Amino acid sequence: MASTGGRRQERLRFLAQEYLAAHPGPDELAPNVSLHNSLRRFLKGATYSKEILDDLIENTVYRLASMHEADYLREQLGLDCPSIFDTNALEIIHNKSSHSQLFSRTWTLLVNREIITKPFRISRFYSKPLRYLTLVLVTFARSWDMIEEWVDVMAAKKKGWYRFIYKVWLGNRVGSDEAIGVMDHAYAAVEAIKKIAH
To answer: Global pTM?
Structure first.
């Protein structure tokens, strides 16, 4: 049991460092407060129960996966714009945008098409990836027809991504423990996501 607990803590330590280094959004933003505070406390030595560790791992993997998914879909459009992982990417894109009136309409379209994967066990939606893709579309598309066309492209490219993420989420291995240096599918998911997205 101690060994299992140690591996769980190592997984969360890796995930927390990766997530917090990925510019996930302001700590003070309401949906981020609890998770960010918990991760920062953990990295400073706080201890949590198995149940809390599992919840933190699951939510952190979901958020990292969503950011990688959004960046992957943006790359499929061939657009020359900042990665979601760049510092202040949302602000840079937003400052270039002259089509703010399209934001709500585009956001709704992306939600309706379920462009960003949300595992059924996750109750709190992470908005940064969807906000990022919305800003990319309204900034770089020349018309609403182009936005719809690009969303169609993303929906088509998403199919393979969607199947992969859910296979990993359900616990299937993406490689041997020796090959990927991990003992859990949550850690493996992020490693595999990186290989696909980059």
So the answer is: 0.77
